[in-house]
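Sequence, structure tokens reproduced for reference:
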Amino acid sequence: MNSLSERVQLVFDTPLGPMHLAASPRGLAGVWFAGQRHAPDRLDGPSAWPEAPGHPVLRQARDELLAYLDGRLQAFTVPLDLSMGTAFQQAVWQALLQIPCGQLQGYGALASRLGRPAAARAVGAAVGRNPVSVIVPCHRVVGADGSLTGYAGGLERKQALLRLEGHALPALSAPQQRLWPEVTA
């Protein structure tokens, strides 16, 4: 595993709010929306990772994310470092990478694909801890009935990402539209 002290970061604005990127010597190790659940403490404050706007992996990730959010990119090529999770989490994150743009997968189906059909809840927990959101497409995982279940970056962002990929989705309820009501309209 890589040390957290070797990380550098970049913060930039997107149509869905500010994003934090983190890179390790091995590749892109983090993509979090501002305020996202499970984001590391080292994004802000005195122990924050150093800003490195010229870092090649961070620049590539930013450019690819902006192109994706603008509808000009469907597949990411930035090198990834997913080594900070457990072996099970890493297996789930690798499985997420196999869900093509525009397709959805249920937690149970993902668990079955991993050879652990009874582990849908554990898969859900690993999906929620995905450190490289959007690029490792945890937003493409839905409930067994197709419902939008939790998303660490917020359900309104999940819905916006799925709409961007061509999914027709019902409007979120008023409490779910707290941050970006214009995204869900």
About this structure: The domain at 87-184 is CATH 1.10.10.10 (Arc Repressor Mutant, subunit A). The CA atoms of residues 119 and 125 lie 10 Å apart. The radius of gyration is 16 Å.
